[in-house]
Amino acid sequence: MRESRPVRLIRKSQHGAAPKAQSEARGHPQNPEREIKNVVSRWVQEHRQHAEEFRRAFAGLVRTNGLPSAS
Fold first, then answer.
1. CA–CA separation, 42 vs 35, rounded Å?
2. What is the CA radius of gyration of the chain?
3. What is the DSSP secondary-structure string of 3-19?
4. Which has the closest alpha carbon to 40: 48, 51, 29?
5. What is the pTM assigned to this prediction?
6. Is the per-residue pLDDT at 44 higher than 90?
């Protein structure tokens, strides 16, 4: 089984105030907390989708091979 490892945050380097000013001018203020929430939310959605696909594939495999269902 996989060993638990600490979470490592990767932050964008800031090369001055110009990139920050440009993003705020576009209406997207840089908020690292919001970015983390978006990444985690996207990961959770993808994980749920993959888990559902796996469940459906496994259920189909069980049905086609005539194995007794787990329900």
1. 11
2. 21
3. PP-----------SSHH
4. 48
5. 0.44
6. yes
Cα–Cα distance, 44 to 50 (Å, whole number): 10
* Cβ-based neighbour number of residue 20 at 10 Å: 13
For residue 71, the tally of other CB atoms under 10 A from its CB is: 4
What's the token pair of residue 70?
């787990």
Residue at token pair 């939310």? 41
* Residue carrying structure tokens 């060993």: 3
* Per-residue model confidence as pLDDT tens digits over 3-39: 777 877 777 776 555 555 555 555 556 688 888 888 8
